Amino acid sequence: MSHTERKHRWLLVPVILIIVAGVVVDSIGAVRVEHAGVFSIPGFWSVFGLVGCLILAGACKLAARLFLKRPENYYDDVL
Amino acid sequence: MMMFSEMALHPAALFLVAALLLVCVRPGMLQRVLLLGTPVAALVAALRLPDRFGDMRYLGMDMLFGRADPLAALFLYSFIVLAGLGALYSLQIRSRTQKAAAFAYTAGCTGVVLAGDFLSLFIFWELMAFASVFLIWGGSARSAAAGFRYILVHAAGALILLAGILLRVRLGGTLAFEPLGTGGLNVADILILIGFLLNAAVPPLHAWVADAYPEASPGGAIFLCAFTTKAAVYLLVRGFAGLEILAPLGAAMALIGVAYAVVENDARRILAYHIISQVGYMVCAIGIGTDLALNGACAHAFSNILNKSLLFMGIGAVVLQTGRGRLYELGGLRRLMPRTLVLTMIGALAISGFPLISGFVSKSILITALEQAHRPGLVLMLMLASIGTFFSVGIKLPLFIWFGRARSAQYGDEVKDPPWNIQLAMALTAALTLAVGMFPNLLQRLLPYSEVSRVYSAAHVSHTLQLLAATALGFYIMRRALVPKPGILLDVDWLYRRGSAQVMRLCAGPLNRLNDWVGELYQRVGVGPVQQASGLLTRFDRSGIDGLIDGLARHTLVIGDGLRRIQTGKIQHYIGAAVIFFFLLMIIVMLY
Q1: Does the residue B383 lie in any domain?
Q2: What tens digit of pLDDT does each residue of B286-326 get?
Q3: Which of B289-303, B324-338, B502-516 has the lowest mean pLDDT?
Q4: Cβ of B161: how many Cβ atoms within 10 Å?
Q5: What pTM value is reported for the model?
Q6: A22 closest CB neighbour out of B466, B478, B488
Q7: CB contact at 8 A, B79 and B227
Q8: How many domains does one find in chain B?
Q9: Measured between alpha carbons, how far is B536 from B532 in angstroms, rounded to an integer?
Q10: pLDDT at A35 over 80
């Protein structure tokens, strides 16, 4: 881990705090969403956010590397 | 005064006159008055519009140039406000063509929103297409070709729309622009829908946005990002609300847009893909079609017009000041352009749906509508798109532009926050974005349908913050894989850029060779034997058929000639011949 990354690791603190606070708010039953049972499970959106982010970014990166990425001058010789 | 209050002044007329004057007026005070005064005058005129005006009959057809009901009014106000902010941003751009084209484009857009019939809609639709291409041509070195592709795509879309309109009249429909396909879609409705979907950039008709918008001039991009796609959203709300196919199509569109944005490297192309993604939310809600969903679509369009313009303003300022637009060339602008960073971040957080900013309000209404319609699958798809939005615009874009170090050559001394007018335009847009976020009633009062929802529920705030925080955590985990590198991404425009060249190569190469081979084969297997057979038949004809016919004729002549000689015409000869024949007959009888 580089010096810069170590210096900015504190940014993770509010991120973790928000997730914990969200889970607590969900858990104490302050949140009631009609028609959306599974969405009200405490921490559902934290897990969905993290897993969704990793899958989305990973899949897109993989698709780009395998199929979509081309050199900058790929279209230079056509209209 | 009474007369004036009863008159309706079409905002498009004001913008068109201003556009014509802007072509002639040199940069100076008069031009500034025109640029800033016209949107103000147009907004005043728009606020005074009656519900219906501008009826006329042309070539036996009823046209309605003005239908300013609450649905049209919401879009009309937001377009005019945006035109004013865009004009302020473009104040110091020297090109008169750019400024005139921007106002002509605004005229087209306001005309489309107010059109009550398909004919006037089509006229303003074409004005939009042809005015907007000049905004693209005013941009980068690649903009000439990009503009050409843009106008070809839109000309094709306009032709499809026109075909739909004409077919609709032919099938007994009227020109009045009312909800379509209420009793099932016919061919005319489908053609009109395709025309609208193309302008809304619904996949697979979406590639023109990411192809053309990043090449436009920074000022022009503000108008482009706000107008064409949102005008199409308005048309879909008006014409196809509740069309079920739009719901999954919109959700898929939201995901496709962010998927590209997550891996794209060109800053303005990232924003262009987010236009597609955000319009996807709106299209999805239009497909649901409940009053709350339609309000959600309209609110999201309004909010997106503001926050997407703010983002294009910020990134446009970076492009203007540094001359760079790719993430792998940028970085480290935090100290050089701090105000631009703060204002752009407001737009980035707004589009990510951060509480207290406009995007949260509109997404909250929209997601509540989907939940109430019992569509959890669509909710999850749109929330996944929200993750991608915060990932790419909320974190990746500012991180790689403003933080770290410059990734290519160091910036020159001239790189600093943009001129006052650009900063003011951004500050005003940011203020509106924050005002809508903090006072959602301001927007909810403008919404066209009656059903509203509670925006700031504890559930939505908690869920949104968890989602955003978890996305930040995910980004942190993946940060090493996300360092921008040169390269472009293939999209559907490949079909008409490389794909058409491949078709040409296929025609010139293999297909041409196949054609030659088939020609040769035809010569050898087809023509040769046929010629030989025809030679044989010719000979048979000459020697056989002709010989038979000619021989018969010849012998008939000889026999005829002999018979003619026998017939002497003398009675003694005939009696002699009869006696000889009689004796010959008697001899034969006696012998047997």
Answers
A1: yes
A2: 999 999 999 999 999 999 999 999 999 999 999 999 999 99
A3: B502-516
A4: 24
A5: 0.86
A6: B466
A7: yes
A8: 2
A9: 6
A10: no
What digits encode the pLDDT tens for the residues B147-188? 999 999 999 999 999 999 999 999 988 899 999 977 789 999
B551 in a structural domain:
no
β-strand pairing of B488-489 with B61-67: unpaired
Q: Residue B382: which domain range?
A: 241-492
Other Cβ atoms less than 10 A from the Cβ of B347: the count is 30
List the single residue in B with minimal CA-CA distance to A12.
Answer: B473
Q: Where a domain ends, among B459, B492, B525?
A: B492
pLDDT tens per residue across span B514-524:
989 988 888 88
Tell me whether residue B202 is exposed, middle or buried, using C-beta atoms within 10 angstroms of its C-beta: 0 to 12, 13 to 18, 19 or more. buried
Q: What is the dihedral of CA B378, B204, B209, B214, to 10 degrees?
A: 100
Phi, psi of B176 (to 5 degrees): -60, 135
Give yes or no: residues B334 and B423 share one domain. Answer: yes
Query: B129-143: buried (b, 16+ CB within 10 Å) or exposed (e) per residue?
Result: bbbbbbbbbbbeeeb
CB-closest option in A30, A40, A50 to B470: A50
- Residues in A closer than 8 angstroms to B150, CB to CB, are none
Chain A touched by B495 (CB under 8 Å): no
Q: How far apart are CA B294 and CA B370, in angstroms?
A: 11
| DSSP single-letter state for residue B508 | I
In the listed set B442, B458, B492, which residue is the last one of a domain according to the structure?
A: B492
Rounded alpha-carbon distances, angstroms, from residue B447 to B78, B294, B295, B298, B355: 12, 9, 6, 7, 20
Q: Tell me if B460 is assigned to some domain.
A: yes
Q: Is the pLDDT of residue B375 over 60?
A: yes
Looking at the domain assignment, is residue B397 inside a domain?
A: yes
What φ, ψ does residue B476 adopt, rounded to 5°?
-60, -40
How far apart are alpha carbons B394 and B384 in whole angstroms?
14
Distance, CA of B100 to CA of B93 (rounded, Å): 12
Tokens in use for B299?
Answer: 């609110």
Residues B230, B284 share a domain: no
**Tokens read off for B391:** 């990932």
Whether B231 and B373 share a structural domain: no
Task: Show the DSSP H helices in B439-524 as ranges.
Answer: 440-444, 458-478, 494, 500-506, 512-521
- A75 and B471: CB-CB below 8 Å? no
Q: Is B334 helix (H, G, I), strand (E, B) or coil?
A: coil
Is the same domain home to B115 and B257?
Answer: no
Residues of A in contact with B466 (CB under 8 A): 18-19, 22-23, 43, 45-46, 49
ipTM reported for the complex surpasses 0.85: yes
pLDDT surpassing 60 at residue B398: yes
- For residue B55, which phi and psi values (nearest 5 degrees)? -75, 135
